[in-house]
Write a structure and sequence with these properties.
By secondary structure, the chain is mostly helical. The chain has 8 helices and 3 strands, in the order βαααααβαβαα.
Length: about 160
Amino acid sequence: MALSAPERFDTLVLLSPAQTITWLEPSLDILANMWFKLNPERDGLEDNLETLSSRVENIDILYKDRFFSTIKNEPRSPILLDMQPFSDAQLSRLSMPVLLLVGDDDLVNDLDTVQQANKVLPNVQAEIIQESGHFINADQAGLVNKKILAFLKNES
């Protein structure tokens, strides 16, 4: 959306964006997630969450139930296979202040994502959140909220 209408955005916060800045590195965990999405079984939920979160035990049961329900009930779509990062030229058009946060144990992002963001986004603050997976807002909720609020306060 920000690329389609950048004038509508004063700031942008990206929390571990999947295949937005860099390609996903193939791995067994990625394949396991794709399989779970195609064949969701409640018994496999905890194992699936273990690949996405560094602190599954801290994820509220209501969130787990909603996460499973969403995966179970959303229509199957090939969009997962169609996802690809935006080009450097596209990303460089995002001139608004951007906060990018990724986990140090993130399944879909890593240091390459942060380095690429620093290279192509003209006004980015990119950070790696320690002791966090792809679900950084669950793994380090307090810290992530604090960083977002500070970013928004500084940019307003």
